Fold:
Amino acid sequence: MGSAALFHLARRGVRVLGVERFGLGHDRGSSHGESRAIRLGYFEHPSYVPLARAAYENWADLERLTGETVLTKTGVLEIGKPGSVIVNGSAEASRLHGIPHDVIDAAEISRRYPQFTLPPDYMAVWQADGGFVRPELGNRLHVDLARQAGAEVVWNAKVEAIEPGQGAVRIVTDAGTVEAGSVIVASGPWIGELVPTLRPTLTLARQVLCWFEPKRPEAVAPGALPVFIIDGAHDIAYGFPNIGTGFKCASHYDSGILADADAARQDAGPADETRMRDFLDAYLPDAAGPLKAMKTCIYTKTPDEDFVIDLLPSDPRIVVCSACSGHGYKFASVIGEVLADLSTKGETPHDISRFDIGRLTGTA
Ligand SMILES: Cc1cc2nc3c(=O)[nH]c(=O)nc-3n(C[C@H](O)[C@H](O)[C@H](O)COP(=O)(O)OP(=O)(O)OC[C@H]3O[C@@H](n4cnc5c(N)ncnc54)[C@H](O)[C@@H]3O)c2cc1C
Structure:
């Protein structure tokens, strides 16, 4: 979110500085691990659809400017029982916003995708625009373009405090202090350290990404397998076609709650592998051959799983962005634009009414 904001501010000619505690592409926060699902028919709530459409446009813009491919459309298959939030929510959002989609039963799923072994009462919503974006690449391109447009970036510098002063806001880092007219706080799972009112409202969930050598490579090859999410009997999990690094999948449920983001470790182990294998054995049995890799990552979750993107009520020069709850990355390209709007004009034409901070902190 920070690198996208940096890009949008720099391209508008704003003098902007990015401060990052670690290096580009690090694996301590929420934006690593090769791919993030992107989809239009948004089961979480139909009001996300306009933002998703704008995100698609902005990813395309980034691709035009750089000649790189950030977004790959594979189609998305959202599978569950009839009446499940994933199936109903996705179909409803698609209907309301005129997004072409198919609602299909288990027989039709297995006709189109015989690699899935689903209970006969399951169904799915198929949507052709779904796919994945590459987070490390997206972040790097946003930073590169921002720097070309004049932005400065300080790496390996930790913001210790944000101190509102009369003329400017002071940003105290362990590498020095700077003053700014406006500050965007997009510190992912560390946001509670810099915006203490948010801290008690957020949960930091340990998540594990797994990559397997496929048992049958044709079953998970691009073209044969779309991005999918399955609301199964005991777990919700999702996966991606093999883009050369193995079959990647993960559970959407957490595997532990972290006391703070610094407590996160790359500590995925046999229990994480077993949990994923059990799921795949039930629903996609040709996917999981030998384990290739696992990575831990953090979901920063609000109680309602909607984002926080707002001006800080106590000081509107400070823009707060916590856009995760496990589904934020796809929107980074447009959230960067929203953050640039908020920090320069105090408002944005995008509908972010769902993301106000007051609903969590009780402030107006
Ligand atoms: C396993 C997993 C799977 C996901 N799957 C999807 C998906 O399929 N689709 C989707 O859309 N979204 C998905 N998400 C959510 C998405 O990845 C997040 O919404 C997004 O990465 C959040 O980005 P961010 O910029 O808010 O946080 P981060 O990427 O964590 O960035 C915050 C940055 O702030 C820096 N920072 C923190 N504190 C300080 C400080 N004091 N000083 C300086 N710098 C600091 C950190 O080092 C970090 O680089 C997933 C998340 C995870 C963990």
Observations:
- The chain has a mean pLDDT of 97.
- The CA atoms of residues 161 and 172 lie 5 Å apart.
